[in-house]
Amino acid sequence: MxxxxxxxxxxxxxxxxxxxxxxxASAEGRLTLEETEQRLGAVYAAKYLDDLGKLIADLPxxxxxxxxxxxxLLVHAGVVAVLTVMIxxxxxxxxxxxxxxxxxxxxxxxxxxxxxAFRAYRRPVPY
Length: 127
Description:
Strand content: under 5%
Distance between the termini: 24 Å
Number of helices: 5
Structural class: mainly alpha
Number of strands: 0
Radius of gyration: 24 Å
Helix content: 55-70%
């Protein structure tokens, strides 16, 4: 059994992601060809995520191009906001004494919270 049970093993996908990052850094002139080759060798030999993190720790954060579409969570929050306004407006117009919108608004809030928690759970592990 391993003497370091708290370390997480790296997957092939994670190794490829770090290798692409190193190749990009080399193309930008941040690494020499020798450094790139040395680090790429270490990437494919790495067993754990923290080993991969050490290989890119001195590089600036990866810049991602802006997304073409808004994130699904933002769309969900927008839909919840619009429905909230519509439901409360309907309650005001109906003249009901009991604030019945509390029930659908509760479930809309729960659905948004579950969506946010699910997205946080699925987020890739940072190196």
